[in-house]
Amino acid sequence: MPRACAIAFSCSTTAASSARERSTSWAAISRRRFLRGRELVRKDVAELFAGRAFWLLLLFVGLLTGQSFISAVDAYAEASGIGGGAAALAQGLSPLDGILVPTAGAYYLAIMLLFPFVAIRLIASEKSSGAWKLMLQWPLRMGDHLVSKVLALLIAWLIALIPFAIAIALWLAYGGHLYAPETINLLAGYTLYFVLTASVAMAAAALMPGAANAAVAILGLTIGTWALDFLATGRGGLVQRLASFTPAAALRVFERGLMRKDLVLALLALSVLALFIAGIALGLGAPLRKRITHSAVAIVVAAIALTLAAHVNISSDLSENRRNSFAPADEQMLANIDRPLTITVFLAAEDPRMNDYENNVLTKLRRTIRDLRVRYPFGGSSALFENDARYGEIHYALGGRTAVERSATEEIVIETIEKLWSGGRPRPPKQDAPDDGTFSSRRPGAAAAPQYPGYPLAKRARGAAWIFYALWPLAVITAWRLRSRRTG
Questions:
Q1: Global confidence as pTM
Q2: CA 80 to chain centre
Q3: Which long-range contacts (CB under 8 A, 24 or more apart) does 407-415 make?
Q4: How confident is the model at residue 232 (pLDDT cuts 50, 70, 90)?
Q5: Measured distance CA(387)–CA(445) in Å, rounded
Q6: What is the four-CA torsion angle of 10, 16, 19, 25, rounded to 10 degrees?
Q7: pLDDT (average), residues 26-30
Q8: Do residues 39 and 139 make contact, with C-beta atoms less than 8 angstroms apart?
C-alpha cells in the first residue's frame, strides 16, 4: 500500500511538474512574442517618423483644422447674435452641428487625400528596398506584421488628432458646451473611417508593384465611392443599401450623433478583408492559384458577414437633442408593429421635401420599426416637371390597410402609421405632465421629453489663428528637425 501511494505521489508530482513546465513554456513563448511584437511596432513607428510624408501630414492637418475651427466659431458667433445681429433660435444652436462636425471635416480631407500615402509608404518602401523579404524570415507570423503596421498607423492617427484636441480645448475655454457621448461617437466614426482607409491603402500597396500605382488605385476607389453615393440618391433597393456603407454616407450617420451597429460591423469587416488580402499578397513564394483561391474565399466570407451585418437593426441615439429619435410614447408604439410597413415615396431626389423626409423621418423609422420597406418610384430620375398626378404623395401600407398623405412632417407621419396599425382607433390621451421644464409632442398621448435648450455663444476664436497658423507649424518643424538629427 505505501508503495502504491509512493508511486501515485511520484506520478502526480511528475504530472504537476510537467504542467508547470508547460505553463512556464507557454508564458515564456507569450513573453517572447510580446517583446518581438513590441519591437516590431517600434520599428514601424520609427519608419513612419523617418519619412517626410508623416510630418507634412501633421503640418497640413493642423492648418486645415485651424481654418475649419476658426470659420466654425465665427459662424456660430454670428448665429448667436454677436455684434447686435439677429440671433437664431437657441434650440437650433448645437455644438455638434456648429463646431464639432465642421472642425472634423478637415480630417475627412486628410483621411481621403493624405493618410493613404503614409500607409502606402509603410508597405511600398519595404517592398522596393528588399527589406520585406528579410522580415519574412523573422520568427513572426504574417498577422503580427500587419497588426504592427496598423498599430503604428493608429499611433500616427492619435498624434494627428492633437489639433482637434486643441480646438476642443479652445472651445471649452471660450465658454462653449460639449456633450461627451456625441463627441466620442464622432471621433469613433472618423477612427473607423481611418482604419478602413489605412487597411485598403495597405492592400493596394501590397497588390501594386509601386507606390504610384497604389496611390492611383486608392484615388480611383475614392472616386468610385463618391459615384456610388451620388447614384444612390433617391433610390431604393440594393444600390441604396450598398451606398449606405460608403465612407461619406457612414460619416454622415456618425455626424448626426447616431451609432449604428450594422455600420460598425460592416466597416470592421471591410477593414479585416483588406488586411487579409494584403497578407495574401505579401506572402512571397505562394503559388498564384493559391493566392487567388484564398482571396476569393475571403471575399465570400466578407460578403456573408456584410449581409449578416446589414440585418443588425440596432442603433443608439447619442445626440444630446435626440434628433434621431421620436418621442418615447411614439417609439414604443412603432416598436410594437410586427408587420411589414411599406412606404412609397413619390418624390424626386432633388426635391427638398425628399431630403427633409429622408433625414427627419425615415432615419428615425428605420431604427424603430423592425420591418420597414421604402420604395422610390422616381428614384434616380428627375421627376420635378413630370405630369404625374401622384407626385408629392407618400403611400403607406400596413397590415392590408393603406393611406396616402402629402405632408412629410413627423407628426402627420406618426398619426398615419398609428391609424393604420390601430385600425383607425386613436391612442387614448394621457394626463398632461406638470410644467417642469419639459415639453410634450403636439400629438395627444405622446410622453414628455426633456427640452433641448441650445447653447448659443457669441464669441470670436481669439488666439486660435496664432496657435494653428504659427505655433503648430513651428512645433511640427522643430519636432521633425530634432527627429532628423537623432536618426542622423
A1: 0.83
A2: 30
A3: 408/353, 408/356, 408/357, 408/360, 408/361, 410/326, 410/360, 410/361, 410/364, 411/441, 411/442, 411/443, 413/361, 413/365, 414/326, 414/330, 414/333, 414/334, 414/443, 415/443
A4: low
A5: 40
A6: -90
A7: 64
A8: no
Beta strands at 438-439 and 394-398: parallel, antiparallel or unpaired: unpaired
**Which of 16-30, 235-249, 402-416, 430-444 has the highest average model confidence (pLDDT)?**
402-416
CA atoms within 13 A of residue 151's CA, in its CB half-sphere: 16
Please name each of the domains of the chain with its CATH number.
104-320 (no CATH), 328-450 (3.40.30)
According to the model, what pLDDT value does residue 314 have? 84
